């Protein structure tokens, strides 16, 4: 509940900041001069100098870096090193963690950019890389979460099916997702994202769109418009539908086995997982993808007052998925929970295996809530 309240406050802060920063005038649209510099509206100048872009947004990226780097790094290490028996869910999760990690390692550049007054000093190529990894992470996360949702349903609904343990299918799906995302992020490298402004004297990265002809703005934003319309309507919306259908079928499958106490526990865990995924989408993916479509739809018509402050706030919140995804691993995989606990307690894999064998040879006493060996010796089941 505390995390939900915190996220609600963050959303409210973003909305208030966006309203205060947007004002009247054209959004982040620049018009080139003969000198090569770009002139922007005073509203754009105010937002670029506001606390929203120079304080709040970089602080959010610091949180993403501080939490996302160790959490996803540990997840990859647990899945690759500590988990001996690989299964499709772990394959999807390690790829999801890798996608998050590949984005998180670039966030220091984003932090420095905003703290430096939204002045990009690292050149056009690095700006393209940062933008590419940002959107690549977003759509990779959506697709891998969809795969996890389908896999979770299939394991519960078809527990005796051999297909649920087919790692080759999972590996093939992951390779296809990486290839697809790599291919679909290619258009982001085909046009410039950095813009040198006249006032303030800064270079922005993926913030200002240059409109060469004010009477006909569409050709100037044609490529990003078609790109984000396609990604929002296909790469985001279709996996969303798949996730909703998978979880509805999952709850229905668990509902048929409510007499079983184990099924009741699985149902509770599934509900928590669904809430976690739902929170991730409500905070990270749904607002950002809606605003991407709205933003570029308005840009192509040169519409006045396009709410850019709220738009960049939703993109900032989209990066929080790198912090939420480890909670998805926690609720999906029991092995992940155990391995993380043992890793934090500095237990080696050999020690854990000896403990498992030792406990399996003992009888559990409900009265003492401990394991009792045949000789009468008692050992606690707590770690």
TrEMBL record:
Alphabetical list of InterPro entries matching this protein: GPCR_Rhodpsn, GPCR_Rhodpsn_7TM, Pro_rcpt_2, Protea_act_rcpt
Assigned GO CC terms: plasma membrane
Disulfide pattern: 127-205
Keyword hit for Disulfide bond: yes
An example molecular function term from Gene Ontology annotations: thrombin-activated receptor activity
Pfam families the UniProt entry points to: 7tm_1
Compartments, record wording: Cell membrane
Biological processes per GO annotation: blood coagulation; cell population proliferation; morphogenesis of an epithelium; phospholipase C-activating G protein-coupled receptor signaling pathway; positive regulation of Rho protein signal transduction
Signal sequence, renumbered to the chain: 1-21
Membrane topology according to the record: Multi-pass membrane protein
G-protein coupled receptors family 1 profile domain boundaries: 71-329
Segments traversing the membrane: 55-80, 92-109, 129-148, 169-191, 225-250, 271-296, 308-332
Entry keyword set: Cell membrane, Disulfide bond, G-protein coupled receptor, Glycoprotein, Membrane, Receptor, Signal, Transducer, Transmembrane, Transmembrane helix
Protein name: Coagulation factor II (thrombin) receptor-like 1, tandem duplicate 2
Species annotation: Labrus bergylta
Native organism taxonomy: Eukaryota, Metazoa, Chordata, Craniata, Vertebrata
